[in-house]
């Protein structure tokens, strides 16, 4: 038979479907089940969003007598506004319909009135879904529809709208495309492949309503076979082939008045690392309590609740603290009827004036047959390794395990199955979680394409490494700072090592146990910065290095050694090194006053060498206004690394009669400068206003200063005699004049 479309019309009962202040809705399907008599059982879940009362959902019915059975559940409110103002709510109900087999597809439709008052002036709403009932040649089952939903009320300040990520998960691994089902609001755009909603210009304040259609397309060529034996061919992601399923998603966004600061975590809450990432697939087991924890922070606002879109009987426990942080724990116990259900769960952190981004996950309900196993994960600066304990996974066939990217192989020995991967290979995903960046991968079992049955257990073992966006991971002794890790989405994870060395070979570093490093004035200190990155071609640039008398880089008492890429201290020598290293030496100094320690803090940047506009390419900038904006170049942000302390002991030379004549010089920029050793272009005298002491012990210097001192004494004596003589003469003149006047 030709692939046709059967319409299952869902007629609302009079007065109930006409819901005022409709905020939107969503439909999600369980996998259709084919019965022994050849009929299909199709169960779908309907979530409806509204303002104050969401329990009055439509009552569905079939038309034309095609449904031989129709079973509706009671509708339960799943979440509501906790402030008592009745601003939003959500409810869920589900329906199971029995469909005759002489149909190739199933369509659902519902409509009602009225949308919440909105900028677009829409009133009537329509819910729609369409599912092909053919058996797929790749999965040997009926197609599964994309899974999606939203929270009931989305709010964003007018000047802070950047993006809204729409959940679009397909259980079969198909490609999901999103489009506007009706023309979208002005100055909004929807990315078809990522299902991300963005703005293209100024957006008007007020309520905007959206009607999206999510459609799935197989990524492989497949054949769909129907109950009467007919079949159709579907080309992989073919634009000429109809989608396997259509699901309409409706929601509203309230565009609020602008706020002074759009930084995430300032007034708008930002999710912290304990929170699942958007699009995560989580697992729940029938009869066992599933829990989801989310944590958010708003430093200048109070988080009073988390808005949640979830299944019936999901509970939430909210907890906040005085530091602007809040957390929620969602709990749900799946029943047998939920087995193999893909449950969408979305959530936002709420303040009085705004909310966080919306994050959504999918919870897959299974029996306790999925093997998790025991895994040990080791995280380094640029890669992670995982070792699975075979004893924790009896009966597992290691030949049917793969990483997210199956082209990366696993190895094994008698006790463990092992994998090693960088943060940019083997399907590793980078996820920004606000205060942390997560690198995630997974080991999964797989089946052969031509297998109809299997007796191998399903294996799903996720593993990850998480790093704060800036952290010192080595604090050996007295603030000895050596290893730093930073992460950025474009450069992945990269690290810096800042060390003190014994000599100019830069091969023998000072051990951690030697900190604080004891030095003498005028002694040459050798320091080196080494960058490490998984990217094969990067360049290190040291933009500045400054000294402070304590470990606070913001101390007002500081002295620049390098500034804006230019060497400022005249004793600095830069030694040859590779593109990812910076080695330099300078003579030891101390701050005037009662200070005996010095810390060095440098700001460093990684660049793509081929980028002509990067900070690395600019080099020394005596005029900082010439600094190009970072957005135009391939470079990381500026990161700060600290080394120290250097502690000063004794004198640089024995305290002999010869050296007792050494002179202390205050370097303020107006006194004679010491001739600098050879340095890179851009070297200049030290900045005026910063005072430092150095002991000069050269015999030549002593002789020069001693001679100058003697000459000065002689000149002062002659001048004193001259002025004394002249002064007496003037006194005599005044006395004579006075006597003459009298």
UniProtKB/TrEMBL annotation:
Keywords from the UniProt entry: Disulfide bond, Glycoprotein, Membrane, Signal, Transmembrane, Transmembrane helix
Cell membrane listed as a keyword: no
Signal peptide residues on this chain, from the entry's feature table: 1-21
Any single Pfam family the record assigns to this protein: ZP-N
Domain of life: Eukaryota
Stretch list, region Disordered: 668-688
Transmembrane segments: 703-723
The ZP domain, residue ranges: 378-623
Name the record gives this protein: Deleted in malignant brain tumors 1 protein-like
Protein source organism: Pundamilia nyererei
